[in-house]
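Attaching the record inline, Q. Sequence:
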Amino acid sequence: MIEHLVRVSPSAARLPRERQLAWKLAALATTAAPVDPAAGATVGHRVVDNAAVAVASLARRPVAVARDQARAHPATPGASVFGGGPRLRVSPEWAAWANGTAVRELDFHDTYLAADYSHPGDNIPPLLAVAQHAGVGGAALLRGLLVAYEVHVALVTGICLHRHRIDHVAHLSAATACGLGAMLDLPTAVVYQAVQQAVHTTTATRQSRKGEISSWKAFAPAFAGKAAIEAVDRAMRGETAPSPIYEGEDGLIAWLLDGPDAAYTVPLPAPGEPLRGILATYTKEYSAEYQAQALIDLARRLREKIAGIDTAAGVARIASVVLHTSHHTHHVIGSGANDPQKYDPTASRETLDHSIPYILAVALQDGGWHHVDSYAPQRAARADTVELWRRISTVEDPEWTRRYHSPDPAHKAFGGRIVVTFADGSTVEDALALADAHPAGARPFDRAAYARKFATLTAGTVADAAGRQFLDAADRLGELTAADLALLFPAVDDAALAAADAALPKGIFR
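Structure, as predicted:
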């Protein structure tokens, strides 16, 4: 692993492109590397993970809207759309838009947390769409996805966007552009320009994750993937980009991040080193913000120590519930965000899945979490739940913040400590550092767990035979032909989506 120093360079210095971060990312994408077997297998697992959460979201309005927009852009050969049926093929950027929205809608796929936040699985829809349209096979797709994950993990490890209220999809678009470049075997200079175009056009504010969170949260990564495809297309045609996008004196670092005196360190594998970045990422067992994963497990465990917490009488015995946790959990999804919407029973699903007080209230009462039922309006409005919810707060604990940012995997933690104080002054507390499903947790997700997640989320929508065919194809990802990539879209009961599609108002495209 090589640590690359990234800092602002005055225009007069004419920073050579070989010393620019965008070039170094492009060079990684265009340098051959052996496939690590564990990393390659994990790519297949994440394809399963993405399809599971995409199918589970197909009837939801934002996903139906994105799918309907995609239908208006048919193409040959084109790319498949989840829920669109085997005959529908659309332009790859629009397939990436529809499928990326489906994957992101439930907040239920993989994550990587370091200096910034990310969902690296968001790279899969745009790469898969272009692979189908360009006629490349599974081996090239696998290579592209390993590169996309590697770049995504490196940028999230080295450069913090959220401190300056920049949304994390700016890192996603760079990773996708690199993955596309690797998959299509493009020259380094072309990928370099595409990375810069993609970053320039997808730098947006984090207001999409603040206050009353809207459906744009699901669309944002799909937009980044679509923009990256378009950037690669332009770069392949010889078009250039604002440069240097990271180090320029009017660039990302100088004006939107830490300023002209800032310096960042981005770790990238040495030439010829296997790409193992995907192994640092982790998926979700529950449909909620990743920092909530360990806390749902903790709430399930703590619930056994609090008699009657699922009743009004039991809640009345509780004076307060305080979560001691990291800076991010407190300030982004906790009471430290100062968002009244995080305590509003009528808030959107997108807001509730970014409200740890709500998630803790429901998990403490129900002893689990369901991707639909736990967000139902009637569940959020239940009187005893609202009463408990409003007694829950978060505080930052410096030790949990330190562990959150620890570079040592043995000490890294995304959980916290919950202290329940009763009206009589007695207390009950417990702590958990990592979600049970984390690679270092009590029961790490394995191939069987991904298959169970797929079966659970697609029950009643994907027939058993179609599900087995899909899982087999994902297991053989690197061996698939270009034609076989269609197998990565499990056949669904299209009739189940008819009502969602029929209810949509029309827009410009149709």
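Residues 291-432 form a domain with the 60s Ribosomal Protein L30; Chain: A; fold (CATH 3.30.1330.120). The CA atoms of residues 67 and 84 lie 7 Å apart.

More tomorrow.
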